[in-house]
Amino acid sequence: MTAFKQGDPTTLNRLYGRSIGKPLRTHQQHLVDNLLPQISPPAEGPVTAERLFGEDCPLHFEIGFGGGEHLVYRADLLPNHGFIGAEPFLNGVASCLSQVEEQRLANIRIHNGDALEVLDRVPDGALTMLYLLHPDPWPKNKHAKRRMMNDGPVKMFADKLKPGGEFRFGTDHPVYLRHALMVMRRHTDAFEWVVEGPSDWQNRPSGWPETRYEHKARTKFGHEVWYFRFRRR
Ligand SMILES: C[S@@+](CC[C@H](N)C(=O)[O-])C[C@H]1O[C@@H](n2cnc3c(N)ncnc32)[C@H](O)[C@@H]1O
């Protein structure tokens, strides 16, 4: 994750965590070499629906999509919406590219790198939805500034979402949960927590599929998972 530095509106411009794992299979490498450049957002300038998809459409952004299960599910569900996913871990990107190819999804753009670099270039008020699912927890206090949920990024999330737009956040990590809610309490001027009672954060909302990461958290580690929806005021 990138870290927030006081006085820096976005990030330290530094990635933490791994960006490559085991070697890619031949076809995955082919997709990274050929499909990825075709569906990457432009390296410079504004990141708009018109530039990415050739027309105005509701824009969604997923930060750290892992293997892309959620991104692909959402894009398939909403074919007339445009989806941008950012993920620095190349093996995750390769897995997402395979799904994009198999399902012939024309409404996904993928950035292999830091989400905040691309999000920063999305015009203010342009996003309909923003997703942050199971961000790296950085559980030690001394690493708290590396967490994606910090005042700088959250301020940027607020800027990029349109009024009525939604920020979805999920975690299975109790330390991150407490930290995230503390941060969000500082941004109640921008975000309204869409909640009526505990079942709202204990049960997965419809249209929010389980990722492989989440499945493992539940079944292998016995973790609870918490779901949050925040509406941009
Ligand atoms: C615990 S995984 C969760 C993956 C996925 N969201 C899921 O729920 O399955 C956290 C992901 O965030 C990614 N990540 C870390 N820093 C990031 C950054 N600055 N921008 C985008 N993604 C980042 C990691 O590479 C990793 O894939």
Task: Characterise this structure.
- This protein is α/β, with parallel strands linked by helices and 233 residues long.
- The protein has a single domain (26-232), classed as Vaccinia Virus protein VP39 (Rossmann fold, 3-Layer(aba) Sandwich).
- It contains 9 helices and 7 strands.
- It has helices at 26-38, 49-53, 69-77, 90-102, 115-119, 151-160, 174-185, 198-202, 212-219; strands at 59-63, 82-86, 108-111, 127-133, 161-171, 191-193, 226-232.
- It has a 7-stranded mixed sheet, sandwiched between helices.
- α1 packs across α4 (90-102).
- The longest helix is centred in the first third of the chain and has 13 residues, at 26-38.
- The protein is globular and about 45 Å long.
- It starts with 25 loop residues before the first helix and ends with a strand.
- The model is unreliable at 7-12 (pLDDT under 50).
- It binds S-adenosylmethionine.
- Catalyzes the formation of N(7)-methylguanine at position 46 (m7G46) in tRNA.
- Belongs to the class I-like SAM-binding methyltransferase superfamily. TrmB family.
- Pathway: tRNA modification; N(7)-methylguanine-tRNA biosynthesis.
- This is tRNA (guanine-N(7)-)-methyltransferase.
The biggest beta sheet reads:
7 strands, mixed
CATH homologous superfamily annotation: Vaccinia Virus protein VP39
Radius of gyration: 17 Å
Molecules bound to protein? S-adenosylmethionine
If you consult CATH, what is the topology? Rossmann fold
CA distance, first residue to last residue: 27 Å
Question: What layout of secondary structure does this protein have?
Answer:
Elements: H1 26-38, H2 49-53, E1 59-63, H3 69-77, E2 82-86, H4 90-102, E3 108-111, H5 115-119, E4 127-133, H6 151-160, E5 161-171, H7 174-185, E6 191-193, H8 198-202, H9 212-219, E7 226-232
Helix pairs in contact: 1-4
The chain binds S-adenosylmethionine.
S-adenosylmethionine (SAM) binds next to helix 9.
GO molecular function: tRNA (guanine(46)-N7)-methyltransferase activity
Pfam families: Methyltransf_4 (PF02390)
Catalytic activity: guanosine(46) in tRNA + S-adenosyl-L-methionine = N(7)-methylguanosine(46) in tRNA + S-adenosyl-L-homocysteine
